[in-house]
Amino acid sequence: MSELTISSGEAVIFWILAPLMVLGALGLLFARKTVHIAVAVAGVMVGLAIMYIANEAPFLGVAQVVVYTGAVMMLFVFVIMLIGVDAKESLKETLAGQRFLALLAGGGLLVLVLAVTTRAALPDPVGLAAANADTNAVGVARILFSDFVFPFELTGALLITAAVGALSLTHRVRLGAKIGQRELATAKLKAYGAGAGSSLITNRPGPGIYARHNSADMPAVDAAGEPVEDSITTVLRIRGQEARLPSEEELAEAGAPYGQDEPAAVVAGAGDERKELEQ
Amino acid sequence: MFVAPHIEWAALVPVMIVLGAAVLGVLVEAFVPRTSRRLVQVVLAALALAGALVAVVWRWTVVQTSGPSALVAGALREDAPALLMQALLLVLALLALLVIADRARSEDAFTPTAAAIPGSEYEDQARRAGLAQTEVFPLTLFAVTGMLVFPAAADLLTMFIALEVLSLPLYLLAGLARRRRLVSQEASLKYFLLGAFSSAFFLMGLALLYGYAGSVHLDDIATAVPLVAGMDGLLLAGSALLIIGLLFKVGAVPFHAWTPDVYQGAPTPITGFMAACTKVAAFAALLRFVYVVTPGLSWDLGPMLWVVAILTMVVGTVLAIVQTDMKRTLAYSSVAHAGFLLLAVIALDSRGISSMVVYLLAYGLATIGAFGLVSLVRTKDAAGNLLGEAGHLSEWAGLGRRSPVLAVCFALFLLSFAGIPLTAGFTGKFAVFSAAVAGGAWPLVVVAVLASAAAAFFYVRIIVLMFFTEPATAEDGSETTVVRSEGLTAVAVVVCAVGTILVGVVPNAVIALSDQASKFLL
Amino acid sequence: MSILNYLVLSGILFSIGAVAVIVRRNAIVAFMGVELMLNAANLTLVTFARMHGDLTGQVIAFFVMVVAAAEVVIGLAIIVSIFRTRGSASLDDASLLKS
Hints:
The complex is a heterotrimer.
Chain A: H1 8-30, H2 34-54, H3 58-83, H4 98-119, H5 136-144, H6 149-170, H7 181-193, E1 220-221, E2 227-228, H8 234-239, H9 248-254, H10 263-267, H11 269-278
Antiparallel strand pairs in A: 1-2
Helix pairs in contact in A: 1-2, 2-3
Chain B: H1 9-31, H2 34-66, E1 69-71, E2 76-78, H3 80-101, H4 121-128, H5 136-152, H6 156-174, H7 181-213, H8 218-227, H9 232-250, H10 258-265, H11 268-293, H12 298-322, H13 326-347, H14 350-374, E3 377-380, E4 386-389, H15 399-402, H16 404-418, H17 424-438, H18 442-468, E5 479-482, H19 488-505, H20 508-515
Antiparallel strand pairs in B: 1-2, 3-4, 3-5
Chain C: H1 4-23, H2 27-52, H3 56-86
Helix pairs in contact in C: 1-2, 2-3
């Protein structure tokens, strides 16, 4: 068997990628936004794909990009987008001492794995030149469909379970008649007739229109000067990204056209709009 | 160049029956009208499990005459211990299936539709429309498929895939309870996260062992142990990580954190299924790994297993004593039982295997029976509406006067858990303890006997509560009642009770049978 | 540079993943920690396959990818259904169960 020599090109790739991958992985511990973590982990997985190819596993490298980066991590990102409105996570420790214990356990694990692998008298690497003679994919397929044909068939059960599970957790059977626009409108008007308030049938107020703020994160102001919660889109509200109404002092400082004459009137949103219309 | 593997179809029949029925069950979901779906699913699942049991018995006779063999390029091994464990699994799964399928007042234990948000109007509509989440049955069969493969797996990869096949459906099933759905969903999430965590450990162990031996076949690793020099660290760390992965599954301390929450939150019939069958499968695999690969490592791995076993017995017993919820009490008691079962693993004695079969039989019968009964004891509010299960221990007070039969059965299962003579539990404990003594682990047996004595205290306390305490009436006028079901649970409970007594009174037949399984033949 | 470097890297990634599972309170982040652990194990497998000159390790890594894909589907489905119930994927909010 021929000895394996590792080219200096591979060493360069390793020393460029490895620190980046560790940095990305550390994002799992220290980053606050779930999306950032997901992208960092996806980056780690691309790095792994390159390392697989360097390790004479081109088939696996491609599969890694397709399956892990392309499917698994993107599924994560989809779900984060779907539910991630509480995207920021408090890194405050909730169970006293838990972080310390976790670091201890992780450190122990690291020492164990490192000690075991570095101190073992590993045999000289053989390399896969012989095994990959008929291309890597063919070599993998030969083992996959001979030695491991039974587990291969068994993974079918796994995939069916996944499909059935995801479906039964999310699929809703429609019960009762389909509710279309007409039915919805009728129901709303009926509710309005029963005295449910006008907000059912009129548009909800739009976000605040000030001279200086016409962005979607500024709430509208009702006649009493209070912000109208409904006027801001739910996503912003849950994320806590809506803007705060300026206080009277701030308005006063801001000067014309609001602050100078009668600051009290400014706060009333209806008054503002009329002013703007007049201008 | 490519040699097509020889596939022993006949030997795969038990697995194929269950897997085929599971796939068929998924098709039933798609094509059978809703009104008859449940009946079809129940019959299909029961027939599949019974058929697989018959097939296993047939394979047993074949193996008795022609000896054990390797199947499908060495992925599986068909030998006496594997077949015995599979038969045990199928019996327990069949009993659990009866409990799962049972309905009280035309409502089973599962949510009408898992997609509905708990407490939403849609959930109410679904309940009134009589929907039922009949995917439960194919999912159960998928789990049983994984469990059947697990004890027979002869290479680590097959073991890993089987572990996932049995776990994934259980993660889902844990979240489908009809009542207290929030708790149930949380149980599902916790079980999933910790289960995935543990399978990552299993996988790392697998990788290190592959690095050690260059193969994942158990017998290749076993033959490499005396030959390969200089990489003992890989072997030890790999074995340790792999064993940790399996210990997670059996719920041994300190890897038990999920057990009480999941046992409490999951639908009670599923809890019974999970508690009994997962333990059988996981212990069978643990036993095979430890007995085949690591006998030469008992000096190195022994201390770890000893510590885990002692911790498991002590912590499980102590925490069971302080619980106030029935399902949590049973959960911690099952943790303690995992500790007793570890004795048979540590024994490394040929009797360890057969004693474990007896113990698992006793434990499984009592567990499925007990959880079946728990699912029948409900709370009724002042207006007579049936609420959820009576979870708190105090709600079980005085049950012996109102439903003596149920209380007597429950007491029988508790006595079996405690290991009182003339119950199956005693036979099992006796077998395991004597195997451990034969294997030289007598200090562990001392701890185990002490823990059993302490555990007997809280089992007896529950019995006293049921028979000699006045039923408490709650302030809001709610009271405990026993629901009348379709009778399937009753059948399962009676079978479990009879089995518990039979194994306790005439243990010889079971012991003789299990003695034939006392060797993993390579 | 020897193939040992890959093993060291995989050990580091595995430990980081394990700590993330224990420390992070967000179910999705914890789950990504599990994925990182699986990937680290895959790197070990691929490296050992090269060391032994035997493709089995690569085949196992391929199986792990399939398993992970199925696991992710189930896990994310569970997380989404919990989120729809509770409006949060934090494990701390999952506190109805006594710990």
